Amino acid sequence: MSSLKDKNIIVTGASGGIGNSIVEKLNQNGANILATGTRIEKLEELKEKFNNIKILKFDISQHDKIEEFIENATKELGGSLDCIVNNAGITKDNLTIRMSLEEWSKVININLTSTFLMCKYSIKKMLKNKSGKIINITSVVGHTGNVGQANYTASKAGIVAMSKSLAIEYAKKNINVNCISPGFISTAMTDQIDEKFKETIIAKIPSNRLGKPEDIANAVNFLSSDQSDYINGETLHVNGGMYLG
């Protein structure tokens, strides 16, 4: 098991199922964690469960506040930043001819532009440390496309390309930028999917099951550890064989 003792890590989207699991796994391995999200009650539940973590409510759609957030989060962690896990994101699904500009723009602005800014200001902190890890959570549909998700798939594909560029720019500064691309994971969101549709999805997965949030957390744990120091600009696919990139 890889140790993250004394590693300062920010986790965005921490109030959701996958975010919860990421926080739990990193906490088990000794990381100093600042968990952030928009639902303070969920963050407080996390803090109650893991009383050694720090929480900070923040909406990543506030682009003009992201630099301040990174500054405040880093101070909460003791003044340095070793890793950020950009897990927050939204969906606004619709068929293309029905998709409004607002639906397109909101998803792109939060999923892609906000992730870019979180990376930008995190890198500024990591340059002072002369090392760092950035882990961006994308999606299998960013590689395959998906009906009704032109905005979401574009945002997730954009994160992959952006991460490769950042990896090239900052590799010599000992900063690694990688992506994790989840397939269909069993969360509160997928629990709401119609059972027949869920069966159709599972039929496309060679492993014949949905993934678990812990599957993503295990991948995050690896990429945030020293064991991944020579991995940069890559996308780790965690999808049960649904997409072989």
Question: How would you sum up this structure, described in words?
Answer:
It is a single chain. With 245 residues, the chain is α/β, with parallel strands linked by helices. It has one domain (8-238): NAD(P)-binding Rossmann-like Domain (Rossmann fold, 3-Layer(aba) Sandwich). It has helices at 17-28, 40-49, 66-76, 101-129, 141-144, 150-170, 188-191, 195-203, 213-224, and strands at 8-11, 32-37, 54-57, 83-86, 132-137, 175-182, 235-238. α1 (17-28) packs across α9 and α3 (66-76) packs across α4. The protein is globular. The model has no long low-confidence stretch (mean pLDDT 95).
Task: Explain briefly what this protein structure is.
Catalyzes the NADPH-dependent reduction of beta-ketoacyl-ACP substrates to beta-hydroxyacyl-ACP products, the first reductive step in the elongation cycle of fatty acid biosynthesis. It comes from Pelagibacter ubique (strain HTCC1062). The protein has 245 residues and is an alpha/beta fold.
The count of β-strands is 7
The CATH topology annotation reads as Rossmann fold
| Total discrete domains | 1
Shape: globular
- Strand arrangement, largest sheet? 3-2-1-4-5-6-7
Low-confidence stretches: none
Please tell me how large the radius of gyration is: 17 Å
Please provide the ordered H/E string of secondary-structure elements.
EHEHEHEHEHHEHHHE
Arithmetic mean pLDDT: 95
Per CATH, which architecture? 3-Layer(aba) Sandwich
Contiguous helical run count: 9
Binding site for NADP(+): 38, 87, 152-156, 185
Subunit structure: Homotetramer.
Family: Belongs to the short-chain dehydrogenases/reductases (SDR) family.
Keywords: Fatty acid biosynthesis, Fatty acid metabolism, Lipid biosynthesis, Lipid metabolism, NADP, Oxidoreductase
